[in-house]
Amino acid sequence: MKSHPFRFAQAGRHIFRERMMTEIAKSPAGQRVIRECQEALDMPVNSDELSRKLVLERFAMEVDLYPYEIEELLARKPIT
Question: What is the pTM of this model?
């Protein structure tokens, strides 16, 4: 959400954010990042809050999202 401009003037921020997150969730690179992030969070070493925050920041940076947005993608999409 940081580097993408609005597509049209009437779109609110919530509409734009939902579209962008859907595009990331459908793209191969986005799916890879979501899968790798879920795997990293499942490790016992990343169970404390600080480690979890660092993992989310690292993977969020790869797809140009904020950490809370990647956390929402992880909650939304079941990883197989």
Answer: 0.74
Tens of pLDDT along 36-55? 999 999 999 988 999 999 99
Q: How far apart are CA 47 and CA 16, in angstroms?
A: 32
Q: Give the start-to-end residue ranges of the domains of the chain.
A: 13-76
Report the C-alpha gap between 29 and 23 in whole angstroms: 10
Please tell me the distance from the alpha carbon of residue 34 to that of residue 30, in angstroms, as a whole number. 6
CA distance 51 to 47: 7
| Contacts of 44 by beta carbon, 8 Å cutoff, 6+ apart | none
Please report how the helices 13-26 and 67-76 are oriented relative to each other, as an axis angle in degrees rounded to 10.
60
